[in-house]
Amino acid sequence: MARRVVRGLLLLEAAGLLGALLLYRAMDRSQDFRYTMQKRFPSILEVYYKSNEWSGIHGIRENDQMAWLSSKN
């Protein structure tokens, strides 16, 4: 029984990790998807921006803001 619980927890953790990876990949590839995330889940988008800044990739937030402001005008 303990093995089943451990196996279930490992599968759940792997599914969560895969989901987070797929979400990051979708945000990394599509500015439109990031715009949708800004409207629906701004805290998740903030984590995306911070993780990129921590890894040395700068300017994504600024590029998005400029594109979104120019599309409104």
From TrEMBL:
Source taxon at top rank: Eukaryota
Segments traversing the membrane: 6-24
Keyword Transmembrane helix: yes
UniProt keyword list: Membrane, Transmembrane, Transmembrane helix
Listed InterPro entries: CEBPZOS
Protein name: CEBPZ opposite strand
Organism: Malurus cyaneus samueli
